[in-house]
Amino acid sequence: MNVSLTNQLEVFVQxxxxxxxxxxxxxVIREALRLMAEKDAExxxxxxxxxxxxxxxxxxVAAGQARVFDPDLLKAQARTR
Length: 81
Description:
Order of helices and strands: HHH
Number of strands: 0
Mean pLDDT: 95
Distance between the termini: 64 Å
Number of helices: 3
Low-confidence stretches: none
Shape: elongated
Largest sheet: none
Helix content: over 70%
Strand content: under 5%
């Protein structure tokens, strides 16, 4: 596989290798891809949790368990505490 990088990214990779933390440009790219995969997985989990929360809210509304949000009432309750 061949990968083309912009000059800026190529310099970045070279700087990472120069620090001694990585032995080669390939190691830098593998680490970057691993981190990207982790980030994608975290985002997918957050999205799944958000969808589950939305479904729960929609189901609550459908079951008649929802209340109308009254910000003034919320403020009044907070002030009494």
